[in-house]
Amino acid sequence: MPVPPTITQLQSQGVAGAWVTCCNPNCLSSEPVTFEAIKLAPETPFPNIARLKRFMCSACGSGRVDVLPDWRGHEAFGDGKAI
Hints:
Blueprint: H1 7-12, E1 17-22, E2 30-34, H2 35-38, H3 49-53, E3 65-69
């Protein structure tokens, strides 16, 4: 079973934080949150962030959110062609 990446590992790949999206179908608001604002230990596995921080949607108040790495600052390598 693969080991999930830690905050430190994602930061080393250019990820600055998490992208938090509301799962309420009537809302679906999204917002980036930096790792500095999340304030968890660097060795924290990324999938644990949602459980440890218990994010709430700032638009509708729902506690049902998805938390994904914020890859916007990441630069992909390669020529974009399939192998």
